[in-house]
Amino acid sequence: MGCCESSSDNGLSTSYNLNASSPLTPDETRLFKQILNEIPLHCQQAIIDLPRRQFLDIYRYKIIASYHFRRMEFQLAILYESKAIHGLQVLLLEHKDHFIFIDMYSTLATCLSVIGEVSAAIEANQMALDMLLKHTPTNYQTISWKYFGLASCYLEGKAWDIAAANFRIDNVAIFLGYGNGRFTNAVTYSTGKNSDPSAIFVADFNSDNQTDLAIANSGSGNVGILFGKADGTFQSIITYSTGFQSHPDSIVCGDLDNDTYLDIVIADSSSDNIAILYGYKNGTFGTVISYTDITFSNPSGLALGDVNYDNYLDIIITNFGTDNVGILTGYNNRSFRLGRSYPLTIGSNPKGVALGDFNNNTRWDIFIAESGIGTINYLVRYISADFQNILTHSTGISIHPYAVIIADFNNDNKSDVLSVNSAIDTIGIFLSYGNGTFTSETMFSVGQGSHPVYAAVADFNHDNILDIATANSYNNSISIIYGFGNGSFTNLTKYSLDIGSQPNSIAICDLNNDDVFDFIIAETGRDSIGILLGYEYNSFEDQITYSNQFSLRPSSIISRDFNNDTYLDIAAAFAANGSVGILYGYNNGSFRELIMYSVGYNSYPYEIVSADVNNDNILDIIVANAGSNTVGVLIGLNNEMFAPVMLFSTGNNSSPYGGTAGDFNNDKNIDFVVANYLGNSIGVLLGFGNGSFAVVMIYSTGDGSRPQSIAISDFNQDNILDIVVANYRLNNIGIFLGRGDGTFENQITYSTGYNSMPTFIIVNDFNNDNNSDVVICNTNTGDIGIFYGYGNGTFTSVILYSTGDGTSPRAIRSGDFNNDNSMDIVVASPGTNRILILYGSGNGQFLVGPTFSTGSKAGTISLAVGDFDGNGLLDVTTANYLGNNIGVHISSGIQHFGRETIYPTGEGSRPYAVAVSDFNHDNQSDLVVVNYGTNNIGIFFGFGNGTLSTIVLYSMENNAHPTAVAIADLNRDNNSDIAVVNSGSNNIYIFLGSINGIFSLITIYSTGLDSRPYGITIADFNNDHILDIIAAVADANEVLLVQGYGNGTFGNQTLYTMGYNFEPYAVAVGYFNGDNWLDIAVANYGADYIEILLKTC
């Protein structure tokens, strides 16, 4: 390679004096690239980071070692390989187990073994194996060779012995080895008269570190144990019966019940039984336990393996008489049941069986010795008719693929396969090569404890790349993973549904015509359909709280820049200790410690407001003191301090709960108005511009009104401020129109709803018409009410938006949280200790976003908004009344789905699946749901605004128990029709649709007695331009194809058989091999396979 100088002894030089900093020659550059190409990508960077000249100088020792190895000069090869290893370990100080050492240690091990250094060879082989397992754990072929090499080293150091069972002469013969291929003469041990020993197994049964023997005595119907001694001899035989008139022919041993003691399994050919002797600590065994099945006949071969990966050994049996292979699945209570039975060729007469991973797919495979036809056969399955199963794709043992979806996940225009793996909380992706074959499965988590049962695919974040959503039945959630467009996914996002909802199916459409995908969820646990409307909703980091020993019962909170540093600060009123607290902000989402200011003994401040009341361009603080019937004023100073409080009466027994500031008489001085809860009035205090106020003027809000909150705006566009007040007990709002001189007209009221009890009120323009609108939160009815203003001082009737059961909303603020130039509303809900945002569309409509915790038992009753970390997104701060702290919620970006809306499907309905179409030709998305519990289907008609009609039901027979639904135009009349599979009545119902969305039951097709059909899809499988139906029939272990006639009827049924107990749950279709014939993917729940059926004609 142009890198070695000549030498007198072997033509190779061993010293290099090149300047380490000199540039590499072209030959050296090629050598370096060649070395990198032989190293996995994830290991290359460590080599690239090395000084290359120094690295190549050392690596040349490896080249010299290889030269000597090829010439079988093993001592020299050991010398130079050791130099290479030592030099590179110094260079790769933090990577001493780097991939590059694997070949070096392997060569070293071979050389050491050849010269008889067995211990050193074992050590080198083990080093190579450990590195290989670390760097390329799925390189099974190479790993298996490394294990073979390691085993060979061990064998070289031992003298092996032989034990033989002599069938007709009733003994076991022992030949002790000398370690050189020669053995002693036989020493025999009797197995009993007429015992006919037919099989033998070697193990240490009594844990004395000596080799013992277990012998299957076919003639005497027992198993004999010969306990070994340290000198290679054995004690007399001890026997254990295998049953009356039994004939044990085969034997295998293993720890079946995980008690660390070996057990014995026997194949009894005469009684067609599999017998088990469970072992005890001292090498003794219990009474025999037998298992049989109608598929067992003359069982002859045995093997043990954990074929379903549940950490319990299973038993594999070859049945000579019935030409099949059976698997007895082991359980944790010493019990077994037949899990699989695989038929073989008639007359194959299987005898021996071997278990291993023969195709490097990390799954157990089975080979069978077929004595009847003289072959060794790998266990395969054949599918008849015009679909052929040429591929099965493992999803892993015991992970239960529940659903299968076809889509192009890596943008190569080929149909890929998605498996929903319910038992291990993942989805698996098989990328297609376009020739009917696929990559190995790549799994992506959808959240621990999720148990996904269905998936939907769409571009949820508008990046033109497919994403995946799953319905998670165990933790009541929807998970979304976002695609990169190359078949990989990231950024798991979970949307929690209500406890007990148990989502079982999910569909996608645009329900409200905003060009954003929405979710429709069949919720089996609470008999409902759930709607998640897609949008750009804010997400928030976990709450950060601020408190001290004086922060008792925070009752109101605002956000302003109190120290003129351009950073937002937070001020809160603390009712229980009559004080105000300030948190000065750093503009990074964090704040200084609380600074407290008294507002009077027993003052019980309930509302805090900020304004410049003395015209010095420094913000002051005003509080409404419900306890002392006063307004308290804290004049701001220029040093982050406030002057002592000044108090102004709001009237005897007035108890002001709310307040706000504005200029009511156009004198350019700040005035103040309060809502007097006990006084059933509002009180106006006109300001003098020096921090003091005139005597309060009272305006009645009505007897027993108990006003709690107050806001101001110009409602009639006369450039004069008006007042609106929330009257808690009278369930209304009151409008006081201003006259411009500080006085007001009498109150005009608008109802907030029966028994609603409004507690907080805000004003803004929520429909972009330049008129002030009013929003209230109704604590008792759990909703937000909006009054849209006409601009003349009058308003619409209230429009309500629910905040959810038990929320008891107490406070609201407005702001543009998602920067779409439309006002949103944030709500504090002490009933659930959460905040939520209603996102405005700018046209007066709102979408309810997700909720965020304010802490357990927080009792949040006030909030404020501002950008506390300077990232351009509004954050939220909360007054957590019962938690005695201030919470800060920093906005962390956007999420795509908000709070769920529920539509009942009927008591006990247990909706199982849902699908979408336009059933009544109004260009709006409608839904069909199949109700497993009430044996019917239900239609919801969409209104195009994200809401749905009440359900329209179509009954089916008793105990039909529908599980899946598919929609298509089955009779070519341009109306959507419905096909439903019924797992209880073992049939398929066809409902034909009409132009007005009314359906008629036309046909029922049987899938076979006790077949339990589970999944369904519709497509044209024979390219006749007529739709056909394909169903997954779980208990019959079949896929059923029914060909369509184009008039809504079907016939010419074809069955495709899966394996025993495969339990096909779902089917999907795609073009997998580029032949323009639809192929089928089957999710086999029981077999943990995705089965690919390729069309062959």
TrEMBL record:
Record bears the keyword Signal: yes
Name of this protein: FG-GAP repeat protein
Keywords: Signal
Source species of the chain: Adineta steineri
Entry annotated with the keyword Signal: yes
Classification via InterPro entries: FG-GAP, Integrin_alpha_N, TPR-like_helical_dom_sf
Highest taxon, organism lineage: Eukaryota
Annotated Pfam families: FG-GAP_3 (PF13517)
PANTHER family according to UniProt: ATP_GTP-BINDING PROTEIN (PTHR46580:SF4), SENSOR KINASE-RELATED (PTHR46580)
